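Please check these two lines:
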Amino acid sequence: MTHFKIPDRDLTYGLKGTVGKAVLLIHGMTGAPGEMKFLAKRLHRRGFSVAAPLLAGHGVDEANLLRTTWQDWLASVREGYHRLKADHDEVYVAGICVGGALGLALAAEDPSVAGAAVYSMTYRYDGWNMKHWYSAIVPYLEPFAALPLIRRLSFVEPYPFGLKDERLRDGMAATQGAVIPGALDRVPLGAMAEMHWLAAHLDSVAPLIHQPTLILHAQDDDMSHPRNAYRLRDRLGGPVALQLLDDCYHMIHVDRQRDVVGDLTADFFGAPGVQRRPDPRRAETVDA
């Protein structure tokens, strides 16, 4: 059993809805539940119950994160899902980056998951603002990722921190990325290797995922090229709607189009009101 510290304060987040449906919101690697608040409030206004759990090993420091694996992160998602499922007939999953992959991994093993939304899917950090060696070197280091010296190597997420909104990203710069309680501003190589192993697992189980899936990705994602979204779309076994957004970077759930992300997600999950389903043709505006 993996041993890791629990944060001194409760970083989880939740709101009770009115339509009998719920959404489990899953933060990204090195992130924290607080980053899901914009989206949670938008979905809650559309009637959904929402819950954002803290992934295992997160919310403390890099050393704590490195004590966990992607299977531990998935166990946190599984636990949060079953808590929501106990009080709701329909529970959906929605996550950013690694959080989206974890939601789909849960959907592959549990057919009761009603549907999924994946934001900024990341198989590799290959966006326009990422150094080319990030993606090039990691596959060669993965066999050695268990070695302490290799596992602890880390890099700082570069400015503009996945944010096109100047006010938000300047706030991140002023606080060294500490705007969201519990979030880390560095990505350890060991955690990145876990992300890649999770992505490989997702590729293997994707044909088993028959739940409707919404994929949202920024055309100008600074961390993850849209080819990641196309790759996921082409592997899933169920119906998929993919839409590219034109005024945000990687953190689409907190950036300039966060309300668009929230409304598209609510519509896709069957919220009452005007339907604004994603137009799959928008996916063809950027080459895969």
Observations:
- The beta strands are 13-15, 21-26, 49-52, 90-96, 116-119, 154-156, 186-188, 213-218, 240-245.
- The longest strand covers residues 90-96.
- Residues 94 and 117 are 4 Å apart (CA to CA).
